[in-house]
Amino acid sequence: MNIVQNNKTWCVIIPTYNNAKTLKRVIDGVLNYTNHIFIVNDGSTDETADILENYKQLYILNVAQNKGKGNALQLGFKKALSLNYDYALTIDSDGQHYPSDIPVFLEELNAATEPVLLIGSRNMTHESVPKKSSFGNRFSNFWFQFETGIKLTDTQSGYRLYPLKHLPKRFFTKKFEFEIEVIVRTAWKNIQVKNVPIQVLYDPNERVSHFRPFRDFTRISILNTVLVLITLLYIKPRNILLKFKKKSFKAFLKEDILQTNDTNEVKALSLALGVFIGIVPVWGFQTFLSIFLAAIFKLNKTISFVGSNISLPPFIPFIVLASLKVGSFFVGESGEILIDFDNISFDSIKNHLLQYIVGSTILATFMSLLLGLTCYVILNFYNRKATV
Predict the structure, then answer these.
(1) Residues spanned by CATH 3.90.550.10 within the chain?
(2) Where would you find the membrane-spanning parts of this chain (predicted)?
């Protein structure tokens, strides 16, 4: 089979660790399609080295001590890039993947007009698939969608086609969790990530799994926690700002807010949530909380983010003063502002913290209700006018 597809060169990377029972079958199967193969022997202690002696015509990369699948893949990527390959197809050596599915990836690559990362989608409902693998895949799919907005049916399959020149330059993980990091961070670069259908075989008599449930699941959970925080604090706000910069304010308002598929109630609630978060005293966390809570309550994250920007720096003095004024009716003598505004400072605000917290909470509630209801009325008017 030609190693050039859609003007892009491709190779195969096979990471392996103590899979002597199935390794030869996998290599021979791949050789039916190409001899541009990189095998990364990740410190195997079984008969792997003896088997690889029969494949000296291939690129063999030996790691003295087992360092993890992520490290093995990165070594393969680095070597393939040094030889100027555009894409690398990775296939596990435990026998679960069928080399006969290689054309499925190549057909999709041929049809692609932009760089793409393809992930083989296994039939996880097949009776041979362990329940823990099926659960782990659903868990991974959920967080991948939350972190990227992309819905996939399989995010854990190791059968993948990577766009080598469009991957992140550096990675932070070395073991199983690497396969999550690489697809999330590649998606963040606006590279298309999609599934292609593949076959799967789980043979308990042959397959050797090196996944350690407690330790590796903990690593994956920690990684997802970090990725979620980055998503909420940086990626989501960045994407919204990029959308805004690419369009005029009128186009942004029309296409990303008014013409979304959300109902008017959801849009109004999203704005109300954002305004509330923007006024209450959670300085520095408004973006995180507005997007996070919008995701939790299935509201419009863009509108919630826009609403939270009521606390932009030019507006902060007015919010603080209004909060203190409102708070003065509930803390201290009614109607009196218990602070010298001619000498306002952080210390003076700190000394009247209770007044400020009470006032800002009440003000946030009132403003969120007011602007939410106003938004709802305007949207209804806009929709009626549009249908006339």
Answers:
(1) 4-242
(2) 217-235, 271-295, 315-332, 353-379
